[in-house]
Amino acid sequence: MSGREFADRPRRAPDQPSQHAAGETAPIAPGDTGFGGDSSLDSPYDVGATKEPILRVRGLNVDFYVEGEWFPAAIDVSYDVSPGEVLAIVGESGSGKTQSSMALVGLLPQNARVSGSAKLGDRELVGMRSSELHNIRGARIAMVFQEPMTALNPVYTIGFQIIETVRAHTVAGPKQARARALELLRLVDMPDPETRIDYYPHQLSGGQRQRAMIAQALVLDPQLLIADEPTTALDVTVQAEILALMRDLRRRIDSGIILITHDMGVVADMADRICVMKDGRIVEAGTSRQIFYAPRHPYTQLLLAAVPKLEVGPYGQGETGDQYEGGGEAGDGPDRRVDAALGRGDQSDQNDQSDRGEGDGQGDQAASGGGEAGDGPDRRVDAALGRGGQSDQNDQSDRGEGDGQGERTASGSRKASPVPVMVAENLTLEYPRRGRTPAFRAVEDFGLSIGAGEVVGLVGESGSGKSTVGRAVVGLLPVHAGSLKVAGFELKGIGSKDLRRARAGVSIVFQDPGSSLNPRLPIGQSIGEPLALHRLARGKELDQRVGDLLEQVKLPASLRNRYPHELSGGQRQRVGIARALALRPKLLIADEPTSALDVSVQATVLDLFSELQREHQFACLFISHDLAVVEMVASRIAVMSKGRLVETGTSEEILRHPKQAYTRELIAAVPVPDPDLQAERRRALAKDLAADDTRSD
Amino acid sequence: MSPIPPSDRQPDAIPDLSGAIADIDTVTGTAGAGENAIELKASEGLSQGQIVRRRFLRHRGAIAAMVVLGALVILITTSIGWGPIPGWWKHSYSATYPIAIPGGRPTLEISLSEGIHFGEHPFGQDTVGHDMFAMTMRGAQQSLTVMFLIGLLATAIGVLVGATAGFFRGRTDTLLMRFTDMMIAIPVMVIGMVLGHWVNGASAVTLGLALAFVEWMAMSRLVRAEFLSLREREFVDAARVAGASSARIIVKHILPNAVGVIIVNATLLMSAAILLETALSYLGFGIHFPDISLGNLVSEYQSAFTQRPWLFWWPGFFIIVIALSVNFIGDGLRDAFDPRQRRIPSKRKMARAARKAAR
Q1: How many domains does chain A have?
Q2: Domain co-membership, A455 together with A317
Q3: Which residues from B are below 8 Å from A471, CB to CB?
Q4: What pLDDT does residue A692 have?
Q5: Distance from C-alpha of A585 to C-alpha of A618, rounded to nearest angstrom
């Protein structure tokens, strides 16, 4: 599905670079470097705006009534939005970024109170009667929500929903309205709009749904489009498409866009100006370049520092800082790397490295990676060519993958550690038939081995089967065919008793810490449960162990009697990690452990994770869709797509010399939190895709 | 792929902030929860059970209903005595007494000047001279017994069937649910009559036990649905990986999370049960004369409605009060267990809070 969508893009790609060279960087008024938290009304809000702003927000406050008290959610928020401009409001959850924008359209719950001023053109939105607001919503201000599946009504076709909006606000007849709906679907590049207009939301892919929702938002050419985390629920490649669409639309319809997001990469890709919010206040505002290259407020600096940065190869030519310098001195870098790459058959190097400790290994790698990347493109191409033989071999083994790879890695790691913790060969996983729904084959012919103490990243888009693999490894899903050895137990056809014993050696950290902890149990009990069930500790000793585990994940032992809902997301995930470590597992499955967390929290959780890994030396299968996160923790990366293993290699190889087109696509789609770099990557990608296009024609 | 020369621009040096990042997390940690912090203000430092209790105690209708039902139970048990508990009321429900006021009219008098005056037969007497107060108390005792028995037993059966079907799915589920469907397809009234007839001349206990077997189906379906959704939650997977057995997962992990649905439906089931019992007794298939239930009192005296309305009224009044109270309690519990329901504060309260903040 996404492949086809992707193929649509190059058609309008060639004109993109020029557009962005002109449009991306708004001129910065001299001496105007945004304003701090002490902003007053006469601050220069209209930074670089040449046109009359369509929205002027001044001193907007939002409070919520809870238990007899008013709690502020947004305090003294002021900003302007000009036509054709993208204003990004950035902040972590709870910073009031959504509430302050919802206040504009009157979509706050009844216990909210709004004061201050927000003028759309010359009309005051704060305190407007709901009947009037009704006319403004949709007609002049439109919204795009985070989750298109829940924002679209599942029982109506998307055409019906768009037509409904058209007819609610205009006098168009049914035929005209349908024509308009089709026109809009074409505008948002919906593939095959004549057919798709009669599709129900569930028949569309995530990206198409989001396109449909954007089409619905654009029905009446709104002056202002509020996009609340429009791409958070989407895969990176789809996200890249939607962002491209929104950039394109901004030019075509000339409305102002408020982009609410926590993803600095998305911001770098889209925003002209940025407001950074913290605890309800705008702590810093300025142009995109000001915020990214000269952040003034400590919180902004912190936020930027916390974003995991992907040190990319193909499109991210510009490695930064020390790494660039490293490239200068390591002139012979590439050659050495070729050697290393060719000699990779014996993986002992790598395993030794991981034995030494993950942190060191990672540091080394990063350094050499920098050298490589800085060294200029030509030599890198050589390096890639030099490994051509190997990549062929890899292609071959794609077919009979499991065997070859399993053996290879197994033999490789035999030197370092006698038995790999996990070996999967020709692994096929199915979700069993249920009623009339036929069995669904989620993973096919998967081969991977993880040595003791090794962290392997498993990357892929949603639906690629990566979580399915994780679930199978902990025995939550039966092995359909092939072989899966975990901690010395063959999981295919394993009996319940053996499974219990096998599970003593593996554990899992789930994606959503809110859902993976039983809301009715105090967290101390949740953490202690594996110990109690395996009869390893009880009574006082159990308490002691639980206390130790909490301490290991840097939580006070006093938290043990709290319930999950009382903890923050980061704390909950620490509890999840503590529970996973309770049995001192040989292998830990981390299933997107940080994707539900804020960036700064994610940074600390990842730090903690690496630290614990170094300390306990457990092997880990780190499942994530975020290449940057995987790069931080993993020494090897496996890429999955549509249930099959696409590519495996060291982090280095995968991120800087991806052999498969899919991996390249995946890496290219990751937005980098750096506006200039991102613009360059975009151009490079467009050119690359255009080249691919002509080649395939 | 077209290589591009490395960018020569370097970002301004960003100071080492790893320490500061750690600070942020601890700060948000101590402040409660980072996200939806404001919503959580209402439930700070409380366990799930405490939150539910608090929300329930704030539901005025439910609390009033609790008080009424409590008072009723006390009145019913102590007035004529129940089992080992001695009664303070002078008359028995089975004996006949001389007619105090011609026509057997109630002696209960409520006036503003003289207060409440009970008299000899406050609820009146029938033509034979039975004391209506004692009879109503006895009827209410029987009806409450039936109600609680049906409530408890039907809940137990429903939870057992629903939990088993929902947790194990597959063939177990199909078998149990088809059986449930079959039970649902037969009108409750018909089975009730057959069972009532079967245990003819039944006491409240046997009738309650019998009726519980026709009232559990709705409960089992709801519990099954709840289990089907809860078993897919990650904490169940987590427990399974931790080595928990199916029985432990059901009892320790899923059941406590389904308790809201169960309690709420148990109360609704009880209010339906009291109506079923009265209906059956009214039709003559439940509790028979000389034993008394509210339903059979109504049925017994329906012909006397024009001449002696009080014979009809008092039992009817008690039926309504009991059924209403139970319904209100169920409603309050439903609201208390629903996490999404938020109280909308009144304008007055909001203004008061604003004034307080201004001060």
Answers
A1: 3
A2: yes
A3: 237
A4: 62
A5: 7
Q: What is the mean pLDDT of chain A?
A: 75
Task: Answer whether A657's CB lies under 8 Å from A637's CB.
Answer: no
Q: What angle do CA B305, B306, B311 make, to 5 degrees?
A: 35
The CATH number covering residue A80 comes to 3.40.50.300
Touching check for A354 and chain B: CB below 8 Å? no
Say whether both A302 and A315 belong to one domain. Answer: no
Helix ranges, A188-320 (H)? 193-196, 206-217, 236-253, 264-270, 288-293, 298-306
Nearest by CB: B10 against A65, A321, A520: A321
A302 CB neighbours in chain B (<8 A) are: 17, 20-21, 24
| pTM (whole model) above 0.80 | no
> Angle, to 10 degrees, between the axis of helix A236-253 and the axis of helix A206-217?
20
Residues A181 and A291 in one domain: no
- Indicate the residue of B7, B38, B48 with minimum beta-carbon distance to A563: B48
Token readout for A81 is 């939005």
In this structure, is residue A590 part of a structural domain? no
In chain B the domains, ranked by start, together with CATH numbers, are 54-337 (1.10.3720.10)
Cβ distance B172 to B233 under 8 Å?
Answer: no
Task: Encode pLDDT of A574-587 as tens digits.
Answer: 999 999 999 889 99
> Looking at chain A from residue 55 to 74, which residues have their Cβ under 8 Å from any Cβ of chain B?
64-71, 73
Higher per-residue pLDDT: B118 or A485: A485
Looking at beta carbons, which residues of chain B come within 8 Å of A318?
6-9
Q: Which residues contact A291 (CB under 8 A, 6 or more apart)?
A: A34, A274, A276, A284, A300
Q: CA-CA distance, B227 to B261, in Å (whole number)?
A: 11
How many other C-beta atoms are found inside a 10 Å radius of the C-beta of residue A547?
17
> Does the ipTM surpass 0.85?
no
Residue A213 is part of which domain span?
Answer: 151-219
Tens-place pLDDT, residues B288-309: 777 888 888 888 887 777 778 8
Cβ <8 Å between B237 and A516: yes
B35 in reach of chain A (CB within 8 A)? yes
